[in-house]
Write a structure and sequence with these properties.
By secondary structure, the chain is of the alpha/beta class. The protein has five helices and five strands; from the N terminus they run βαβαβαβαβα. It has a five-stranded parallel sheet with strand order 2-1-3-4-5, sandwiched between helices. The chain is globular, with a radius of gyration of 14 Å. The protein starts with a strand and ends with a helix.
Length: 132
Amino acid sequence: MSDLFISYQSADPLAHSFQLQLQKWADQDWEFPSFSFHEQEPPIKFQTRAAGAVRRQLRKEIKQAHQLLVIVSRQTWQSEWTDWEIATAYEADKQVLAAKVDSTNISPLGLLTAKPVWIDPFDPIALIQRKF
């Protein structure tokens, strides 16, 4: 079980940089929350039969985590998977955190309903203070 279920786009250079930074912080500080990364666009299309198994696994992981952190990248606003992850976390009464790696990125619609806590993605204290 992880403290943070992190939804991000590995193809986005800034999101990848953030992933590396999180790992560095976790290695340096035992108080840093545990986390698991999940691609915002899995290799399976959202509206297919095969997606059911992926959704079941993700739902289980989201329910086991304390919080969902959505890293808003260039294409995040177009991800059906991300909106579904946000809705799943919100329905499970999980705290939703959001961070933009670039201020010009468009937020996914699911964040409007979830009323996330926006954090600075490059400030480790913001994540340590939010640890459950």
